[in-house]
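Quick start: read one record
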Amino acid sequence: MSIGVAILRGGYQEEEKIISNIEFNVHSGELVGLIGSNGAGKSTTLQAIMGVLPFMEGNISIEAYGYVPERPIIYEYFTLWEHIDFYMRTVGKEKELTTRAHELLEIFHLEDKLHEFPTSFSKGMQQKVMLILAFLENWSAYILDEPFMGLDPQAMRKLLHILEDLKNEGAAILMSTHALDTAERICDRFVLIDNGQILQQGTLETLRVGVTLENGSLLDVFDALLEVKVYE
């Protein structure tokens, strides 16, 4: 199952568009990086895809998906296990997901924190809670908004392994991130956004050709494309 995005325009009020002419696809078994500077429209685009943007004209094609928010969403009076249990009870899959929950707790080294309150966790540990909840079920699609935020190197490596496994299982993954070095290594294609519109999209190789940077990094290419836009 792929993710199809065709946004004509969208924003928080009908008369004030923030994004426009955003069109791309994420195919099954593919990881696509959504790249842009702060305020470029990445989070607004993700909100439009998830159907929570107040105003949007266009078409989105996506079924049920796993989601990692940009900022952890933590319930103040829930322990770590209560967060997980609440999710499993909400979807009615306590028996099916309990084993997977313990696997993820072990992967992210939180198995000894079950009865503690995540509000007292570090930012990185709270991010691990979001990852556990997102990956409890095997979804056909995933939307990840800055998933590496606050993670230590070991946790980042574990996350990269999970993403690789999900790709191999056929998941379509859309990831917004500022970790360009990491994105360059793991993403199949990129959608570069600036000022609410697509600047360019494609593989790193095709993006390099567009700015004649044979060995340029993703950051080099993005900077070059921004410079070209300024002088147009």
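Residues 74-138 form one domain.
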